[in-house]
Amino acid sequence: TSGYQVGVLDADIHGPCIPKMLGMRGEEVAVGPPGAFPAVGPYGVRVVSMDFLLQSDDTPVIWRGPIKMGVIRQFLSDFVWGPLDFLLIDLPPGTGDEPLSIMQLIPEMDGAIIVTTPSETSQIVVKKAIAFARQLKTPIVGVIENMSGFICPRCGFQVDIFKRGGGLTLAQEASVRFLGSIPIDPSICEASDGGASFILGNPPSPAAKAFREIVARVEEYVRLRSESVRSESDTGAEERPK
Amino acid sequence: TSGYQVGVLDADIHGPCIPKMLGMRGEEVAVGPPGAFPAVGPYGVRVVSMDFLLQSDDTPVIWRGPIKMGVIRQFLSDFVWGPLDFLLIDLPPGTGDEPLSIMQLIPEMDGAIIVTTPSETSQIVVKKAIAFARQLKTPIVGVIENMSGFICPRCGFQVDIFKRGGGLTLAQEASVRFLGSIPIDPSICEASDGGASFILGNPPSPAAKAFREIVARVEEYVRLRSESVRSESDTGAEERPK
User: Do A62 and B135 touch (CB under 8 A)?
Assistant: First the structure.
């Protein structure tokens, strides 16, 4: 619907959720002479996930870190992604092998999006993720606060189940852009489990509005970044005699 | 308050949360001639966590799997835990290096407690954890459904934010004991962030009641198991001539 060509790499090797959330469970990966092909999901999104490679739900992936890095490398190099405007990579929480592999394998990445809940406990973990990205010289797009407050659909009473506002505080403390807060909405879980788009299915809801604002901020970040990269490389070309 | 001697090993190396939840941040580990000593928290609980070993919140732990296994081994062997009735081990979600290390290092473990949310997406991940434990021959104590439904504190309306009942279905499908459902309660997040006991601070709440029932079921499991282990070893002694 956006007109973009989008790929999604589900880099959560032990708990791949993307196929379920896109209604693509049980799909198979086509393999041809140039390599393997991502499965094509709703709106033409190209998806690669460990879930497509496992025989059943009861198949756990029992691999230590270095093997996981090998798999992630294959997901990037052995799959024929085709031309893409965006490659979104879903990572498990924490600063383990999966984010480390991604950051080392794609040094030219535009940036990492950090998702937190408003709770202080979640923020402690997320602070480490910010420090991790900085140490690996990965730019940070910004922080999203998920599960931010809840409004009772019957009486309109606001209950901040996991608190509210902690994401903004964290972003300010860490000098990182704040991308927005997504309120709790039971329809998000419904849509995800059903493999449907929450935003397209619930356009007037506050959570859908929050998602759209966040998308706009990420698009703006990428646009500004690609302009600055282009002007830097122009300058580079002028400075370096051939 | 239970009279038990309890140890907690926070085996979430990348996102250690236990010290925050027990009000023990900034504690240090004492080192003596026999080894290092766990920090002593509320109610005499002995705690070991990566959090005590990091200089600041901004210190990410950038280690691949095999190094993590080494650290977990040290947590178990180089720390003087003293006599314990229970050693609780908190693991990150998924079937990665941390649970693999724990299950390999403690083959005589009484069992793994599996926590899910009611959403189908969460259940897919948790199914793998059950298969993982079985493959590694770790007994499964049972399944807990966390974030199970929400009741508006003003109007009493029930909103099943992340659905409800999926944990029981999962337990039945996998032929595993169901230990109970914990409803969403904003006081749980408040208490955790504040380092206070939710159960002791909110004894009449439905969530506290759910926690107490789960504790009773786990106690019963451990009692039955230790009885059966004892009778097995008695039989063993009779059968094997010396």
Answer: yes
Nearest CB to B154; choose among A15, A152, A162: A152
Calpha distance B102→B10 (Å, rounded): 11
Distance from CA of B24 to the nearest CA of A (A): 12
**DSSP type of residue B98:** H
Interface of A with B in 196-225 (CB under 8 A): none
pLDDT band at B1 (very low <50, low <70, confident <90, very high): low
* B170-183 residue pLDDT tens: 999 999 999 999 99
**Residues of chain A found within 8 Å of residue B64, distances taken between Cβ atoms:** 64-66, 69, 97, 100
Average pLDDT over residues B110-135: 95
- Same domain for A28 and A72, yes or no, is yes
Residues B27-83 pLDDT 10s: 989 998 889 999 999 999 999 999 999 888 888 888 888 888 999 999 999 999 999
B30 touches chain A (CB under 8 A): no
B185: Cα separation from own chain's centroid: 20
Partner residue opposite A152 with nearest CB, options B66, B152, B184: B152
> Is the CB of A94 less than 8 angstroms away from the CB of B12?
yes
B155 and B46 together in one domain: no
> String of b and e for B135-158 (b: at least 16 CB within 10 Å)?
ebebebbbbbbbbbbbbbeeeeee
Which of B12, B60, B93 has its CB closest to that of A131?
A: B60
In this predicted complex, what is the ipTM?
0.89
pLDDT tier for residue B127 given thresholds of 50, 70 and 90: very high
Q: Domain of A168: which CATH number?
A: 3.40.50.300
* B133: containing domain: 108-242
Asked if residue B88 and residue B2 are part of one domain, the reply reads yes
Neighbours of B209 (CB within 10 A): 16
Question: Which residues in A lie closer than 8 A to residue B186 (C-beta atoms)?
Answer: 159-162
With an 8 Å Cβ cutoff, is B96 touching chain A?
A: yes
The predicted structure's pLDDT at residue B134: 95
Q: Enumerate residues 6+ apart whose C-beta is below 8 A from A5.
A: A44, A46, A82, A83, A84, A85, A86
- Would you say B150 and B163 are in contact if contact means Cβ atoms under 8 Å apart? no
Tell me the pLDDT of chain B averaged across its residues: 92
A102 and A112 in a common domain: no
